[in-house]
């Protein structure tokens, strides 16, 4: 049976070509047509998003979320594999499956919302850079060749630097340099790991097996783990993140938290675990300890944090800790917890950064002491902030619950005292998450309105509703129907863990 869907594989190229073409068109438009250029960027982003939604419609009946019985685990729904550099044996290999598809859709959605957000307040160059970022992120999630994965992984570096340095806060250049230096360090390690694997095995095909000895697997997994930990970022390699988020413009923070961080955790699953499962098993206890420390440390820092965007940034460290704990268990339940945790964090934290960016722009400050009484001045904005906060703390029925709860369950299911202890400590960290978000709401929404809040605009514009409403709706939908993210992931995960490889 032929499982490669060559007739529709052009969709994979179109997902990359459309935003790339959009960025070029926007950049070439004259400066006098700045607003029109941002509208054009939004149109290209919308077309790209529609292309991502078309994937389940065109795949064969044996593929997809609810029709996966009997399909080999790592066979992509859509597949494009053509020679790229024949002399070096490099392949231009793209594909999408149940593991990558939710993140592909999330990338298309957040880029569209951010481009739409720039129509009213933004710049032509900023909109073009968002489209370039989309090319790099989508390419990373679609790449099924190690070399190609590395190239797309690096595409986002300079555009994200430009977004922070060009449209960020007063300390934006230092934050942008810090982002670049950390990411470059991770890139060097990733490149060494990729070259080691390809030279040892003669292939970079992520849908096949990699015949590596256990010692080599331990080495390459260590390289991959550090590289992806920097990108995620995972404790203790997270220190670039608060500065980047604090200084980045609102759309930069949304893209950074919503999808760029997912490149690290996705890479750890697809490349780290997929290429070196024995190395992952060797490093699993260390990853679990780092995950628990990240959860607890992130929560404790948030309890003391007084700056709004920095608090949300540090909350990401804790949430990514739950994702890492799920990965570290190396079980189907744990990896599924990581996958839905990735998507939930993208939706909820993307919404949070839209909201706190708006609050900071309206009041001119991000200091919690100067932001009380928001519900008196803007009750709808305060209500949305409350919704996003309780979703982020993991309230059952909302998207944030599933990833964190099942990461704890997966750890406890491992059975021995070490893993049970990790699960219990992670659960304590979840309780601390509730504490700091409730503290945030008490400080910002309750009490008498401060001068900064009283002087701010109260109404929510139509453009803001357009940007926020889809994230609110999807947070509810994923919370009620997590199968939208998880159905069909069992067999691919078993294959990544080494149980279904050819």
Molecular structure report:
This protein is mostly helical and 502 residues long. The protein contains 21 helices and 2 strands. It has helices spanning 10-28, 34-58, 101-120, 124-142, 146-155, 157-167, 172-201, 214-231, 240-247, 250-275, 277-304, 308-329, 332-363, 374-377, 379-392, 400-413, 417-445, 451-454, 462-480, 483-486, 490-496; strands at 78-85, 90-96. Helix 4 (124-142) runs antiparallel to helix 5, helix 6 runs antiparallel to helix 7 (172-201) and helix 7 (172-201) crosses helix 9 (240-247). The two termini are 15 Å apart.
Biggest sheet layout = 2 strands, antiparallel
Based on the structure, what is the oligomeric state of the protein chains? Answer: single chain
Q: Helicity, in percent?
A: over 70%
- What would you report as the Rg, rounded to the nearest angstrom? 22 Å
SSE string, helix = H, strand = E?
HHEEHHHHHHHHHHHHHHHHHHH
Query: Residue-averaged pLDDT, rounded?
Result: 85
Number of strands: 2
Number of DSSP helical runs: 21
Strand order of the largest sheet: 1-2
Structural class: mainly alpha
Report the uncertain regions.
1-5, 64-71
The coarse silhouette is globular
Cα end-to-end separation: 15 Å
In summary, what is this structure?
The protein is mostly helical and 502 residues long. It is 72% helix and 3% strand. Strand 1 and strand 2 form a beta hairpin.
Question: Which descriptors would you attach to this protein?
Answer:
21 helices; globular; two-stranded antiparallel ribbon
């Amino acid at each position: 049976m032929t499982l490669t869907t060559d007739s529709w594989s052009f969709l994979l190229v179109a997902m990359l070509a459309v935003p790339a073409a959009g960025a070029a068109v926007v950049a070439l438009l004259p400066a006098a047509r700045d607003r029109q250029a941002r509208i054009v960027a939004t149109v290209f982003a919308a077309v790209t998003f529609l292309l991502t939604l078309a994937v389940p419609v065109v795949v064969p009946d044996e593929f997809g979320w609810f029709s996966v019985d009997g399909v080999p685990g790592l066979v992509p729904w859509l597949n494009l594999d053509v020679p790229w550099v024949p002399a070096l044996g490099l392949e231009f290999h793209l594909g999408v499956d149940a593991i990558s598809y939710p993140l592909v859709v999330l990338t298309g959605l957040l880029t569209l919302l951010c481009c739409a957000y720039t129509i009213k307040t933004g710049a032509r160059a900023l909109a073009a850079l968002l489209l370039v970022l989309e090319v790099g992120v989508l390419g990373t999630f679609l790449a099924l060749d190690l070399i190609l994965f590395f190239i797309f992984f690096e595409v986002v570096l300079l555009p994200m630097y430009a977004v922070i340095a060009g449209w960020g806060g007063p300390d934006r250049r230092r934050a942008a340099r810090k982002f670049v230096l950390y990411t470059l360090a991770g890139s060097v390690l990733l490149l060494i790991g990729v070259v080691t694997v390809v030279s040892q095995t003669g292939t970079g095909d992520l849908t096949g097996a990699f015949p590596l000895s256990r010692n080599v697997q331990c080495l390459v997994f260590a390289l991959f783990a550090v590289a992806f930990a920097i990108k995620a970022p995972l404790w203790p390699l997270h220190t670039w993140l608060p500065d980047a988020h604090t200084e980045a413009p609102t759309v930069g923070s949304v893209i950074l938290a919503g999808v760029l961080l997912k490149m690290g955790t996705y890479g750890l699953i697809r490349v780290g675990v997929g290429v070196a499962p024995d190395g992952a098993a060797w490093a699993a206890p260390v990853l679990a300890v780092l995950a628990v420390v990240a959860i607890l440390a992130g929560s404790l820092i948030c309890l003391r944090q007084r700056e709004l965007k920095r608090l949300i940034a540090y909350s990401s460290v804790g949430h990514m800790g739950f994702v890492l704990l799920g990965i570290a268990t190396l079980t189907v339940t744990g990896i599924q917890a990581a996958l839905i945790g990735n998507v939930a964090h993208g939706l909820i934290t993307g919404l949070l950064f839209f909201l706190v960016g708006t609050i900071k722009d309206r009041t001119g400050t991000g200091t919690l002491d100067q932001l009380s009484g928001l519900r008196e001045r803007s009750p709808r904005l305060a209500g949305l902030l409350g919704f996003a906060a309780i979703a982020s703390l993991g309230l059952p029925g909302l998207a944030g619950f599933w990833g964190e709860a099942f990461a704890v369950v997966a750890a406890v299911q491992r059975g021995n005292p070490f893993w049970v202890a990790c699960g219990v400590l992670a659960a304590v960290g979840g309780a601390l998450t509730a504490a700091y978000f409730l503290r945030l709401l008490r400080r910002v929404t309750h009490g008498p309105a401060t001068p900064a809040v009283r002087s701010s605009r109260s109404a929510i514009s139509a453009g803001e509703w357009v940007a926020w409403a889809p994230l609110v709706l999807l947070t509810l939908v994923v919370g009620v129907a997590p199968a939208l993210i998880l159905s069909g992931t069992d067999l691919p995960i078993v294959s990544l863990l080494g149980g279904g490889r050819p």
